[in-house]
Specification:
There is one protein chain. The chain is an alpha/beta fold. The chain is built from 11 helices and 11 strands. The protein folds into 2 domains: 41-70 and 203-289, Rossmann fold (3-Layer(aba) Sandwich); 73-202, Rossmann fold. The chain is elongated. The two termini are 20 Å apart.
């Protein structure tokens, strides 16, 4: 699919508070309104359970937020594999978690198995980003390794910097997640068990929202490759032309992995923050409309692993 894209200025880089891929708009609609994004419509495609972290700050800035949850997080096809690995957690040197979803699934299974969160004390824990670390910290567990780059590539670099030369790693991952981390850790000498902790499936979004999207919206947000794939499938399944709908909006990608999924489908995002987190994505959307936001505190979320 190669949707038509409206012409826009070349992107400019605004630094970490605002994001890297932003083409500011020329209109001054928000300059005369009461809120920075007043009059702007933004589509959120995240799973219902995760949408609030993006919906609430956008609404606080005055945006009309249209929820189109096109993904849902469910158990993997063989949940016993994760249970077996968690029972043997002490056999591993590292547990790797690449998303808050992974944290939630691992914690849920530890409780169900009667092991509890205390079982994590038997292993060092590495996480991909700030939101994963924050979710883990809520349980009283501080991760042992958090990369500066909130992607699998960043965690590989962090492991390489340790200079350990090997060890056993349990990577509790999304079924649809990338294999890069496992492959590159193996190249560093680690023995890696890739065990699905959850999977991402299409959600049953309200088909009535298609008419609203067909009228045109300002921004459609994408927070994982799965949101790209499933929004297109949702539109096609409801008789809409994805190319036409997407040509009427600006695509906002949370980071490089999601951007690659968009570009593979002929969609060049106008907005991509330098830091792959939800607060940075919100700030980048505001910057797109030339609205400067104050620096926020800790990052609230990074992208889904799928």
């Amino acid at each position: 699919m190669h949707p038509r894209r409206r012409g826009r200025r070349a992107a400019r880089h605004l630094g970490p508070d605002f994001g890297g891929r932003v083409a500011p708009r020329d209109d001054n609609l928000n300059a005369t309104s009461g809120a920075p994004l007043s009059g702007r419509s933004v589509v959120v495609t995240r799973a219902r359970a995760q949408a609030a972290a993006l919906v609430e700050p956008l609404e606080a800035l005055g945006a009309e937020v249209i929820a189109v949850p096109v993904i849902e997080i469910v158990d993997p096809p063989e949940p016993a594999r994760l249970d077996d690995a968690l029972r043997r957690l002490g056999d591993y040197d590292w547990l790797v978690l690449s998303s808050a979803n992974g944290v939630d699934r691992v914690l849920a299974r530890l409780e169900a198995l009667g092991l509890g969160v205390g079982a994590l004390s038997a292993v060092r824990v590495a996480v991909v980003g700030a939101a994963t670390a924050a979710r883990l910290a809520e349980t009283g567990i501080a991760p042992d390794l958090v990369p500066d780059d909130f992607r699998q590539e960043g965690l590989v670099d962090a492991f390489a910097a340790l200079g350990e030369g090997g060890g056993r790693v349990l990577f509790a991952r999304a079924l649809e997640g990338r294999f890069l981390l496992g492959e590159q850790l193996a190249a560093l000498g680690y023995e890696v068990d890739l065990v699905p902790a959850y999977r991402t499936v299409p959600a049953q979004a309200d088909s009535g929202v298609v008419d609203r999207l067909a009228l045109g919206v300002d921004v459609i947000t994408f927070t994982s490759p799965s949101t790209v794939k499933n929004l297109i499938a949702f539109l096609e399944g409801n008789g809409a032309d994805p190319a036409e709908v997407l040509s009427l909006a600006e695509a906002a990608s949370i980071g490089p992995v999601t951007t690659a999924a968009l570009v593979a489908r002929g969609i060049e995002p106008a907005i991509e923050p330098a830091e792959s987190t939800v607060p940075a994505l919100v700030a980048a959307i505001a910057a797109f409309y030339s609205v400067e936001l104050p620096a926020s505190g800790a990052s609230a979320a990074e992208p889904s692993a799928s």
